[in-house]
């Protein structure tokens, strides 16, 4: 099955372009519109074209209805009657494969056969019955082997994990420095700094890693079953809430690096419900909220993907800054569960639902929208079929947790870049994502579970390298180097002096 474009001309004026499906039998269609001939369309009589047409054909494209005989029978009858091509109107809204019968091994068909969607075919039939002069150009553009959009999307995903990992490692190093200073100087100011600056991190446990699959699967099925326009609107609202938080967190952190904004970032005001909020956060919040609202209102315009990617990237970076895997054991369980989850819902779900649940949800089928918002997307720039190259948040966040863990471990264990694990984990992720796009192109655009390729590369590289260097046991059970709790240490010292 391959996609075909049918450019219609009504009374000599270009009209709509219809997308159909070419048959697996017959000749290869022209790939460029300028080389495709303008050919007049004629109605079949009888409409199913299962017997010789009553009207005489002299090279026209014949328009017929599906049913009552095989696709090859219709095409043979049309060819014998003098048609140059056959357009078959499906009796349903979707399109299906057109193949030969099992016993037709020596079939020779010299004209192309294309199936049209029911609504488009009915429209053409109505024009022909109203005596309009209808002609078509039939061609099948070839997709480029590699689109620039995939390169930029690869850079976007890798760059997001890179930035998030360095922010996470920097926060962990700052926390370690505070602990060391508290060991030397037990002051209330230091204790306040510790609790105020580093209390928002969440470590994933073994239980939560395992439960991830169950909750994620339930949520995916809910998306699949409830997929509709109003449900997408709910997802847009939830995405905007998360996007505002992510954009605000990243904006404040970035501005705080400049000395002009440091005072505003370190000065707080008490607000009801929210508690202590910095003046810099208050100043950035309206901008972030307005950005998300503008994107939500204009998300259907051609360039809205830029706003969606900005909100998505900042949200992912914020999640990777807050949520952490404490050791390699938890990371292995999490990624293994995600690996199985991705494979099941892309491939195995077809056995129960007759279609890939993950792909249907990602595309936003039956919703009237161009996919769910929880994706990074870039338009395919040189693809004649258009569309977007996309990657889900989970394909970045889940392996990103392990990559961020590797850099935190390297910094806290005082390992150099060459002797550490981050550069290897980062390279493994990039290579795994690259292999995903290679597989996607080899499979003729059929959706691929990215974690099928990313997880073995990232997790396998980490485990093999840890085993080779003798760090695997420590990485597996302990993880990041720990420092003694300053509060307990200082209490013990005080008790010793009193005795």
UniProtKB/TrEMBL annotation:
The keyword Nucleotide-binding does not apply. GO terms for cellular component: cytoplasmic side of endoplasmic reticulum membrane; endosome membrane; Golgi-associated vesicle membrane; lumenal side of endoplasmic reticulum membrane; lysosomal membrane. The keyword Protease applies. Gene3D superfamilies: 3.50.30.30. It comes from the Eukaryota. InterPro entries: PA_dom_sf, PA_domain, Peptidase_A22B_SPP, Preselin/SPP. It is a multi-pass membrane protein. Belongs to the peptidase A22B family. This is PA domain-containing protein. It comes from Kalanchoe fedtschenkoi (Lavender scallops).
């Amino acid at each position: 099955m391959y996609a075909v474009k049918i450019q219609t001309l009504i009374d000599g004026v270009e009209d709509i372009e219809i997308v159909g499906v070419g048959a697996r039998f017959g000749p290869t269609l022209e790939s460029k519109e300028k080389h495709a001939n303008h050919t007049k369309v004629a109605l079949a009589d009888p409409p199913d074209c299962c017997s010789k047409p009553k009207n005489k054909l002299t090279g026209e494209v014949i328009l017929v209805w599906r049913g009552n005989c095989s696709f090859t029978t219709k095409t043979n009858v049309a060819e014998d009657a003098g048609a140059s091509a056959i357009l078959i109107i499906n009796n349903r809204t979707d399109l299906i494969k057109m193949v030969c019968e099992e016993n037709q091994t020596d079939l020779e068909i010299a004209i192309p056969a294309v199936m049209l969607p029911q609504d488009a075919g009915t429209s053409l039939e109505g024009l022909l019955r109203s005596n309009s002069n209808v002609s078509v150009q039939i061609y099948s553009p070839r997709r480029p082997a590699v689109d620039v959009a995939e390169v930029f999307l690869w850079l976007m995903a890798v760059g997001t994990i890179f930035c998030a990992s360095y922010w996470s490692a920097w926060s962990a190093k700052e926390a370690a420095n505070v602990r060391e200073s508290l060991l030397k100087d037990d002051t209330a100011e230091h204790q306040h700094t510790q609790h105020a600056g580093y209390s928002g991190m969440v470590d994933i446990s073994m239980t939560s890693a395992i439960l991830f699959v169950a909750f994620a699967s339930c949520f995916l099925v809910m998306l699949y079953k409830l997929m509709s326009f109003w449900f997408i609107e709910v997802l847009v609202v939830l995405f905007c809430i998360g996007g505002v938080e992510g954009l605000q967190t990243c904006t404040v952190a970035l501005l705080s690096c400049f000395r002009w904004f440091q005072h505003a970032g370190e000065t707080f005001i008490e607000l009801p419900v929210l508690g202590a909020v910095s003046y810099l956060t208050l100043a950035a919040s309206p901008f972030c909220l307005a950005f998300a609202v503008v994107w939500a209102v204009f998300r259907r315009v051609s360039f809205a993907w830029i706003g969606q990617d900005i909100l998505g990237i900042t949200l992912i970076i914020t999640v990777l800054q807050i949520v952490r895997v404490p050791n390699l054991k938890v990371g292995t369980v999490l990624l293994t569960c995600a690996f199985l989850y991705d494979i099941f819902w892309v491939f195995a779900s077809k056995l129960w639902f007759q279609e890939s649940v993950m792909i249907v949800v990602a595309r936003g089928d039956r919703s009237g929208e161009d996919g769910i918002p929880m994706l990074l997307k870039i338009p395919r720039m040189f693809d004649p079929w258009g569309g977007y190259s996309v990657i889900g948040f989970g394909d970045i966040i889940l392996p990103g947790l392990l990559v961020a863990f590797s850099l935190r471990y390297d910094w806290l264990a005082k390992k150099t870049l060459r002797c550490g694990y981050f550069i290897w984990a980062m390279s493994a992720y990039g290579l795994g994502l690259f292999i995903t796009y290679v597989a996607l192109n080899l499979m003729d655009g059929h959706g691929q579970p990215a974690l099928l390729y990313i997880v073995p590369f990232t997790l396998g590289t980490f485990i093999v390298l840890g085993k080779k260097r003798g760090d695997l046991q420590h990485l597996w059970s302990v993880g990041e180097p720990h420092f003694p709790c300053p509060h307990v240490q200082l209490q013990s010292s005080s008790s010793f002096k009193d005795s």
